[in-house]
Every structure is written in structure tokens, then in C-alpha cells.
Specification:
The protein is mainly α. Helix 1 crosses helix 10. It has one domain: MetI-like fold (Orthogonal Bundle), CATH 1.10.3720.10. It is built from eleven helices and no strands.
């Protein structure tokens, strides 16, 4: 899997560099405190200084909390949920897809029937309904997003397994007594994983947007823990007079998702099979 250094690649690296500074460097700066409230310094504009002489680079929210610190913590929360959800869906999807493609028959029909059933129901509706039932929390959100994102991995892993199971190295191992589990682990999985990483890069952006959407609706991350979607929702009350309360988390979300998407496209540019995967995924 190669990386093509095009204009979009440099844009992606630039966007992700800004996000990295926000989520990794900002928390180490002096004065970082996303929970400290100072009502005397509430709703300060970016670049203003409070009465006690504290400078706020990105201003403060209605409770006087530092917006820069809140954005940094919200970015950490979004990335944690996104990476955890992608890991869950990757493990489930690849496992079920390889099993379906290798064994065929009723096993394949059962797994792919489950995938088709899940695809027939709008994903957002499933997320809203289940999140309302089990209650919002970071752990529940990560697991729920992971359980509803496995189908893309499963369908592609199955398609690749159907081809790989007929290859000479798999048939040779089978004739020499290799078990299906050994073949899947030693032959199919190493050939499937590189392509699955590309699919995961696309899914990461989508999962982060879904997390922000649920948090915006009040079904995701709960206060006082910040989330970019939750910050957008809270800032809407002051949108006409204080637009930065909504624009700042929106810009941060855009930079992360756009950076991930542009970078994943760069990885597929040198890989024809990966490009086909992207077409199937879309």
C-alpha cells in the first residue's frame, strides 16, 4: 500500500497536522482546563482577555470555559470513539466476511442475509433508536457505532475470500491437512487486511460524523464531557450574535474528517484493487 504525494495529500497532511496539534499539543499547554468555569468571563470573543487578565485565544463559552481547551478535549473524545468503533466493526466484519466466503453454503447465506437486513434499515434510525433505549455514554456509543458498521468490511472480505479460497496456495494447504481455521488465519487474513485498512480509513470519517450527529441530538456524549457535535448544538442558541461558538467545533470536525478522507484517497491511488474496493464501498 503506497502513498501518492499529490496536492490532496499535502492538504490532508496539513489538516491532520492542525488536528494533531489541537488534540495532542494543546492539552500540554499551561492553563489547559476544559472544565474550569468563570462566569465573569463568559462569552468572550476569540482573542479577548478577561477581567483577571487571562487571555483566551478562542474565547469562552456561556459558562466561561476556555473554548480552546474544550475543543481539544472534544477532539480526543471523538477520536477515541471513532477508533474504538472502527476496531469493533473491523474485527466483526472481517471475521464474518472471511467465514462466509470460505465456507459458502448456509453459513454464507445466513451471514449475508444478516448484512442485507441491516442495510435495509437506515443506519441513523437504528443508532437513534438503540441509543435512546440503552442510554448515552462514551462506551455505549463506541460499541453501538461498531456493531452497525461491520457490513462494509464483511461484504468486501467475503468477496476477497471467494477468490482466495480457490488459489493454489490455499488448495495445497488443504490437501496437506490444513484446517479451515488455519487457512483463514494464515492465508486469507494477511491478504485481506491491507485492503481492510483502506476501508477503515473511509469508515473512520463516517463514524466520527455519526458520533457528532448523535451528540448534537443529545443521544451521544453528555455534559460536562465535550463533543464537537454537542458544542455545535449548544452554540446554536447564540448563533446570530456569537457565531464562533458553532463555527469553531464545526471547522475542527471538518478538518479531521476531510483530512482522513483525502489521505485515504491518496493510499488508493497506487492500488487498482483498492480503487475497486472504494467503488464497491460507495
Amino acid at each position: 500500500m503506497k502513498l501518492t504525494f499529490s496536492a490532496s495529500t499535502f492538504i490532508a497532511l496539513g489538516l491532520l497536522a492542525v488536528v494533531f496539534v489541537l488534540v495532542a499539543i494543546v492539552p500540554m499547554l499551561p492553563g489547559y482546563d476544559p472544565y474550569d468555569q468563570n462566569l465573569a468571563a463568559s462569552l468572550l470573543a476569540p482573542g479577548e482577555t478577561s477581567f483577571d487578565g487571562t487571555f483566551y485565544l478562542l474565547g469562552t463559552d456561556p459558562l466561561g470555559r476556555d473554548m480552546l481547551s474544550r475543543l481539544a478535549l472534544a477532539g480526543q473524545v471523538s477520536l477515541t470513539i471513532g477508533l474504538a468503533a472502527v476496531t469493533v466493526s473491523l474485527v466483526i466484519g472481517v471475521t464474518l466476511g472471511l467465514i462466509a466466503g470460505f465456507f459458502r453454503g448456509w453459513v454464507e447465506n445466513l451471514i449475508m442475509g444478516l448484512a442485507d437486513l441491516q442495510l435495509s434499515i437506515p443506519r441513523v434510525l437504528i443508532l437513534i433508536a438503540v441509543a435512546a433505549l440503552i442510554g448515552p455514554s462514551v462506551t455505549n456509543l463506541a460499541i453501538l457505532l461498531g456493531l452497525t458498521s461491520w457490513v462494509a468490511y464483511g461484504r468486501i472480505a467475503r468477496a476477497m475470500a471467494l477468490s482466495l479460497r480457490e488459489r493454489e496456495f490455499v488448495l495445497s494447504a488443504t490437501t496437506q491437512g490444513a484446517t479451515p481455521a488455519w487457512n483463514i488465519r494464515k492465508h486469507l487474513l494477511p491478504n485481506v487486511l491491507p485492503q481492510m485498512m483502506i476501508v477503515a480509513s473511509y469508515e473512520l470519517g463516517e463514524v466520527i460524523v455519526l458520533e457528532a450527529s448523535l451528540s448534537y441530538l443529545g443521544l451521544g456524549v453528555q455534559p460536562p464531557l465535550p463533543s464537537w457535535g454537542l458544542m455545535v448544538s449548544e452554540g446554536q442558541t447564540y448563533l446570530e450574535l456569537l457565531p464562533w461558538l458553532t463555527l469553531l467545533p464545526s471547522i475542527a470536525l471538518f478538518m479531521l474528517v476531510a483530512g482522513v478522507q483525502f489521505l485515504s484517497q491518496a493510499f488508493t491511488a497506487e492500488n487498482d484493487s483498492s480503487a475497486e474496493i472504494v467503488k464497491v464501498r460507495s
